[in-house]
Each structure stands twice: as C-alpha cells, then as structure tokens.
Specification:
This protein is of the alpha+beta class. The protein has one domain. It contains five helices and eight strands, in the order αββαβββααβββα. Strand 4 and strand 5 form a beta hairpin. It is elongated, with a radius of gyration of 20 Å. The mean pLDDT is 78.
Length: 204
C-alpha cells in the first residue's frame, strides 16, 4: 500500500512539474525563434493539460513583439502552428518581412471563427520587383509602373484587413482585402501571416 501511495505521489508531482514547465519551455522557444534576427518578443501560452502543446494544441496563445526580422517564403504557408489554439492574439510592431516594412500587424481568432488580420506597412516598387513579380502576381501592373527609375525607390503604403481561413495547411482569404498604392493587395495577406506563423512552430 505504501509503495502505491509513493508511486501515486511521484506521478502527481511529475504531472504538476510538467504542467508548469512545458508551457514555459514553449514560450521561451518561440521568443528565441522570433528574435533570432533581433528585436524583442513576449509569448504567453495557456494550455491544460500541458502535453497538448506537443501537438500544437492549446487554450490560448498571446504574442507581442517589435523590431523583428521575419523571413518570408515565396512558397507561402499556412497557420498550422496556430490552428490548434482556442484563442489566438498576436500583435507585432515595426518589423520587416520580405519586401514589406510592417508598422502594425494583428492576427486574432476566437474559437472556430476565421482569423482576422490587420496590417499597416510600406514597400517600394524596387523591393516588390526584387522579391518576385510571379509571387505577387496580381500586382503586375503596379510592378511595371513603379519599378522604373526614379519611382522604384519610392515608398508606398500597404493596408490590409482580411479574414483568413486555414485550409489543409494553406491560407485563403475569406473576406476583406487591402491595397498597395491603390492596387489590390492580392496574395499579400496570406504571405505575411504565413511568415509570422512559421516562427511560431514550437516543434521546429
């Protein structure tokens, strides 16, 4: 009987320790991933039981950051790192990804609702052209106009407010839109959101 009680006590202690440590380890890992190119970040994760986090599953993830350098893949990406959380609350300020200098970025979701993304940024024709006209296909007319000197280095405002749905590991715009210097923003919202999400993959 004593051995059983001791084993049960040890198991309870292990569960309590895991519940305390696993989310903290995940938070620190994500903070390091976000700031590996500089800047500052804060991540808070709520999850019970803690082992759900090993499957990118949790109750709530909250992220704050500024002055980050976040690489953007031309292949895009999805939000699988975030889809398992019941609530997503991300606000990043003053960071760079791909050809965009982001002043404000918000990505939120509650329950099964679509993600809501809002972003205010600037870019230039030269930066867009360097990144790749094929990737930003719907911006072809804009690229042809502003990539020419002396306008290529001129900054243009980027404003995006959309609802995003995560489908089979990829992102789709459910509603809303955005513009770059008055032109439709096209695939820009999924590219930016996907770039941020890749830094929030705990298992990598």
């Amino acid at each position: 009987m004593t051995i059983v009680l001791i084993a049960a006590a040890l198991l309870l202690i292990a569960v309590i320790v895991a519940q305390a440590l696993i989310p903290r380890i995940g938070e620190r890992r994500l903070e390091r991933r976000l700031t590996e190119s500089g800047g500052e970040a804060f991540v808070a994760i709520d999850v019970f039981p803690a082992t759900r986090l090993l499957r990118h599953d949790g109750d709530r993830i909250r992220v704050r950051g500024r002055e980050l350098g976040i690489g953007m893949s031309k292949q895009g990406g999805g939000l699988s790192a975030l889809d398992g959380f019941g609530e997503v609350d991300i606000v990043l300020m003053d960071f760079v990804t791909g050809p965009f200098e982001i002043e404000e970025f918000e990505l939120t979701r509650v329950g099964s609702s679509p993600y809501v993304m809002r972003s205010v940024a600037t870019t230039s024709g030269a930066a867009l052209a360097d990144y790749g006209g094929e990737t930003l296909g719907s911006l072809g007319p804009l690229l042809g106009l502003v990539a020419q000197a002396p306008l290529g280095g001129r900054s243009f405002p980027v404003s995006v407010e959309v609802e995003l749905e995560s489908r089979d590991g990829l992102l789709a715009v459910a509603s809303g839109g955005g513009t770059i210097a008055g032109y439709p923003a096209g695939p820009i919202a999924p590219l930016i959101a996907g770039a941020v999400a890749r830094r929030l993959e705990i298992s990598h």
